[in-house]
C-alpha cells in the first residue's frame, strides 16, 4: 500500500510539533502537546524535539517482534534516558504526544492509537471507521469552557489557555483521566489497538487533530468527504481546506478553539494508489 504524506506548521515562525514518517513496514504519526507561550515545561529541548525523537525511535522499534504497545513503551523509556540528565521529567508540563502507529506484513495490519489523533479506515461498502481516543476531550469539555468563551488571540484567551492546560495536566496519565505518550511507559498499554486484513480496507488515513478540524470541530465535512478529498487531491489539499476555514474565523467566534491554527499532518494510504 503506497502512502502520501503532508504536514504544515500552524505558524511559519514556530516549530512544527507534529511528526510523521513511513517505513517499509510501518508508519507513525505523533502530535506533540505544545506548552502555551509563557508556560515553562521543564524540558530544554521542547515539544518538537520530543515528538520527532519519540517518533523516530518508535518507527525503528516497530521493526522488532514486540507488540505495538511494547514498542511504544520501550521508545518512551528510551526518550526518558536521552534527556533525564538535562530536563525535569517530573514537571507537570514536560512534553507529551499523541501516537498513531501502523505495522503491516503481506496480509495484515496492526494499529495503535493513543490520545486524540485519528485513524480512519475506508472499508468497502460501509461508512468510514474512525478510531480515536476521546478521553482527553471528555475530561476537557468542562475545563475548556472559560477559554472557549473568549476571543482567540486576546491576552484574556491566552491566560485562559494557560489555565486550561494546567488544569488538564492534573488528569494526564492517571485512571479516570486520559493517557498520552509522556514519561510513563505504562501509558502505552492504555492505547487502543487492533488488527485487520489489508484486503478489508480500500484506504486509510492517519491525521493529527489539526488536520481533522473540518470534520470534528467545524462540522463542514463528513469523514466520507475527508477520505474523498484525500483520494482525489491528496493530503496537502485537505490541509489547505482546513487553513482556509481557520483563516475565515481568526478570533474563534464561530468555532471556539485553543489555537486559531494548529499544526496539521496527514498520512494517506490507498490500495489502488
UniProtKB/TrEMBL annotation:
Domain named PPM-type phosphatase is located at 15-234
A Pfam family: PP2C_2
InterPro entries on file: PPM-type-like_dom_sf, PPM-type_phosphatase-like_dom
Q: What is this protein called?
A: PPM-type phosphatase domain-containing protein
Traced from the root, the source organism's taxonomic lineage reads: Bacteria, Bacillati, Actinomycetota, Actinomycetes, Streptosporangiales
Amino acid at each position: 500500500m503506497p502512502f502520501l504524506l503532508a504536514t504544515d506548521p500552524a505558524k511559519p515562525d514556530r516549530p512544527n510539533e507534529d511528526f510523521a514518517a513511513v517505513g517499509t513496514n510501518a508508519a507513525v504519526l505523533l502530535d506533540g502537546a505544545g506548552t502555551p507561550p509563557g508556560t515553562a515545561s521543564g524540558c530544554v529541548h521542547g515539544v518538537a524535539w520530543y515528538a520527532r525523537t519519540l517518533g523516530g525511535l518508535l518507527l525503528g522499534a516497530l521493526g522488532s517482534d514486540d507488540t505495538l504497545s511494547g514498542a511504544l513503551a520501550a521508545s518512551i523509556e528510551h526518550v526518558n534516558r536521552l534527556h533525564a540528565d538535562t530536563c525535569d521529567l517530573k514537571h507537570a508540563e514536560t512534553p507529551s504526544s499523541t501516537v498513531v502507529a501502523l505495522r503491516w506484513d503481506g496480509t495484515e495490519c496492526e494499529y495503535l492509537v493513543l490520545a486524540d489523533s485519528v485513524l480512519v479506515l475506508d472499508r468497502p461498502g460501509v461508512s468510514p471507521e474512525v478510531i480515536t481516543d476521546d478521553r482527553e476531550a471528555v475530561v476537557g469539555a468542562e475545563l475548556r469552557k472559560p477559554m472557549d468563551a473568549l476571543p482567540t488571540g486576546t491576552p484574556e484567551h491566552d491566560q485562559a489557555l494557560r489555565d486550561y492546560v494546567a488544569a488538564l495536566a492534573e488528569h494526564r496519565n492517571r485512571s479516570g483521566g486520559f493517557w498520552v505518550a509522556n514519561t510513563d511507559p505504562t501509558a502505552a498499554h492504555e492505547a487502543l489497538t487492533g488488527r485487520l486484513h489489508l484486503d478489508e480496507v480500500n484506504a486509510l488515513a492517519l491525521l493529527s487533530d489539526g488536520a481533522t478540524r473540518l470534520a470534528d470541530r467545524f462540522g463542514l465535512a463528513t469523514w466520507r468527504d475527508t477520505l474523498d478529498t484525500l483520494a482525489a487531491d491528496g493530503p496537502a489539499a485537505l490541509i489547505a481546506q482546513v487553513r482556509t476555514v481557520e483563516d475565515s474565523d481568526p478570533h474563534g467566534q464561530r468555532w471556539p478553539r485553543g489555537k486559531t491554527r494548529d499544526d496539521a499532518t496527514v498520512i494517506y494510504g490507498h490500495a489502488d494508489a
